TrEMBL record:
It holds the Pfam family DUF6504. This is DUF6504 domain-containing protein. Residues 4-135 form the DUF6504 domain. It comes from the Bacteria. InterPro entries: DUF6504 (IPR045443).
Length: 136
């Protein structure tokens, strides 16, 4: 299994009222979905949004900042990552609080080998992303 975070263009159709991928374009190749193997919804929890990694270490003995240096009520993940040298990265803020993942079997070309793909869809932004590819 290989893991990716590649944006993909997806043509979808509605099956039983659910938007389902029909074909997708990945790395210049058109893949046609032949079977939907499974589908699930992932919910982003607030503590996993924002900074990835340990971030800054809180030291209660450190001097309190002046009132002008106090962080705003809404913490912006990019601002935290910029201010904190220990941050490894920032989660993508374009994704909404939920996304649907489709595990599909797809093939490319007339006689192309079929593989399993995990395609994630954010219904808020309409964005699709390829997350995993599995050989069968």
């Amino acid at each position: 299994m290989w893991e990716f975070d590649d944006a993909v263009e997806v043509h979808s159709v509605f099956v039983d009222g659910i938007e389902t991928p029909d074909q997708f374009l990945w790395r210049g190749r058109l893949w046609r979905v032949t079977a939907l193997r499974s589908q699930w919804t992932e919910t982003a929890v607030w503590w996993e949004r924002g900074v990835i990694g340990p971030g800054a270490i809180h030291d209660p003995r450190a001097q309190r900042p002046a009132q002008s240096d106090v962080l705003p009520a809404r913490i912006d993940a990019a601002m935290v990552a910029e201010a904190c040298s220990a941050a490894v990265g920032v989660l993508d803020a374009d994704w909404g609080p939920e996304r649907t993942v489709f595990r599909v079997e797809a093939g490319s070309g007339r006689y192309g080998r079929r593989e399993l793909f995990d395609l994630a869809h954010d219904p808020v932004s309409g964005r699709w992303q390829l997350e995993r590819v599995t050989d069968r």
